[in-house]
Amino acid sequence: MSSHDYSHDRFDPLYPAPPNPAGPDCANLMRLATLGAVVGASLAASRQLRQVQEGGQTPQRAVLETGKSAVAAGLATAAGGAIASSLTDQGLSRLGLLFLAGSAVLYGLSNWTEGRENPHA
C-alpha cells in the first residue's frame, strides 16, 4: 500500500495540466458535434418548413432532409473542431480552421450524397 495522500491531487489553477498531446478529448468533440447538429438542424428545419408550406416538399421528406442536415453539420463541426484543436490552441486562427475544415467536410458530404441520390445525373 502506498502512503501517498491523493486528496490534494486535483486541478490547481496555478499549475494547470499540460495540453493533451493526443488532441481534443471525445467529450469535447461530442459537445461540438451536438452543437453543430442542433444549428444545422435548425437551419434545415426552417428551410424545409418553408418548402412544405409552399407545397414543394412533403412533410416526411422534410423530416428526412432535416435529419441528414443535422448529421452532416454535426460531423463537419466535430471534424473541424478536431482539426482546429490539433493545429492551434485558441484565437482567430482556431476559429478560421474550424470554419474551413467544417466547410470542407460539408462540401464533401453534400457532393457524396448528391451522387448517391441521383446516379443518372
TrEMBL record:
It holds the Pfam family MamC. It comes from the Bacteria. InterPro entries: MamC (IPR058956). Residues 1-12 have a biased composition (Basic and acidic residues). Residues 1-20 are annotated as: Disordered. This is Uncharacterized protein. It comes from Allochromatium tepidum.
